[in-house]
Design a protein that fits this description.
The protein is mostly helical and 381 residues long. The protein has 14 helices and 3 strands.
Length: 381
């Protein structure tokens, strides 16, 4: 089934959820300040220009803003019509970067496709397109998902294909986020909970096997329990992040006054930007930021619920899926920063430096904003 797209469909029926949009914009602005602050010394040492990363991040923010606005003016039914096509394209991109000489390898991981001024990370696109496909699948096969085991297996099989490509990169963080988000959406759609016992057990077993077959992964997991035992080795990043939290205290050292960013904490402007935030803005600033991110996710869930009650299942499931991706990535990144999880390479949405993640997050938020604008009585499917 495909929807007919008319020219009038590109105009929203109403205004987007103002609270949702403003909170997202506020987080993006805070992210720019944090990237500028945390990357000054690294940029000076690497490029001779203290604001090199800040200027690149400003460019990424501009591209992300354009992408979000474009996504806002795309009708939801258009995403439905081409969901499978987009998923196939993203899987091709995941396969292309594995070709020797094509993909860009950094620290042993081949996750990027170099486009000159911009390194594209296909896994970020794959997360978005998988949610498009899953939402369209649920519209077509909802009863099968709720009543038959096969309805649950089919989307998980697609995740399995993507998982193979992600494991070859490798990118375990993205695989974990995507798998959990897909199972979360299926649960919200009404899939029997008993099916999660099988796939949940398989997921846990797979993670254990992956950890055991590579000694460095076992070392990372062991480091969580006592990072100070090897504070200059495997536990270095975690201990430096914890020191940043300790230095920040209640009110922080002030924006721009971080000590840990002075070559002590690696990846301070990407994976560990939240530790720098806690050091500069303190416990109050850290908890306030978490509260704002929680509010954004909550407003998004309300948008999805309104779409579901309004008879727009595709819009509802797509909203749930995109929000689960963002929320899970936030949770895992925060867990890494406070030493509750091994380093995964996942950025903090809207706050960390990273072009592909920032752009795709903005596109996701633009899609959700469009869904909120169409959440009117008799709104479009």
């Amino acid at each position: 089934m495909k929807f007919e797209i008319r020219r009038s469909d590109f105009m929203p029926l109403g205004l987007p959820d103002v609270h949702f949009v403003l909170v997202a914009c506020a987080l993006a602005c805070l992210g720019f300040l944090l990237v500028a602050s945390s990357s000054i010394e690294v940029a000076s040492d690497r490029f001779g220009q203290p604001f090199s990363f800040a200027m690149k991040h400003a460019l990424f923010l501009t591209i992300a803003a354009i992408g979000g606005v474009v996504a806002y003016f795309i009708p939801t039914r258009w995403w439905y019509n081409y969901a499978t096509h987009f998923l196939l394209i993203s899987m091709v991109l995941l396969a292309v970067i594995l070709i020797p000489g094509v993909g860009l390898t950094v620290k042993g991981a081949t996750r990027w496709l170099s486009l000159g001024f911009f390194n594209l990370q296909p896994s970020e696109i794959a997360k978005f397109t998988m949610m498009l496909f899953l939402a369209s699948y649920l519209v077509r096969r909802l009863e099968e998902v709720r009543q038959k085991f096969s309805g649950f297996v089919k989307p998980m099989a697609v995740v399995g294909l993507i998982a193979v490509l992600l494991l070859m990169e490798p990118d375990y963080g993205t695989l974990l986020v995507l798998s959990c988000a897909v199972m979360g959406v299926l649960l919200l759609a009404g899939a029997p909970f008993t099916q999660y016992i099988v796939f949940g057990s398989a997921l846990v077993l797979g993670l254990v096997v992956l950890a055991v077959i590579e000694p460095y992964r076992v070392e990372r997991i062991e480091t969580i329990f006592n990072p100070w035992a090897d504070r200059y080795g495997a536990g270095y990043q975690i201990t430096q992040a914890l020191l940043a939290f300790g230095r920040g205290g209640v009110v922080g050292m002030g924006l721009g006054n971080s000590v840990q960013k002075l070559f002590y904490l690696p990846e301070a402007h990407t994976d560990f930007v939240f530790a720098i935030l806690a050091e500069e803005l303190g416990l109050i600033g850290a908890l306030s930021t978490v509260a704002v991110m929680t509010y954004m996710v909550w407003r998004g869930l309300l948008i999805g619920r309104r779409a579901e009650l309004g008879g727009r299942p595709f819009a509802a499931y797509l909203t749930y899926g995109l929000l689960l991706l963002i929320a899970l990535q936030i949770l895992i990144n925060l867990a890494v920063n406070i030493g509750l999880a091994p380093t995964t390479g996942l950025t903090l949405p809207l706050l960390s430096y990273g072009g592909s993640s920032l752009v795709m997050t903005a596109v996701s938020l633009g899609v959700i904003a469009r869904i909120s604008a169409d959440n009117l009585p008799g709104g479009r499917p």
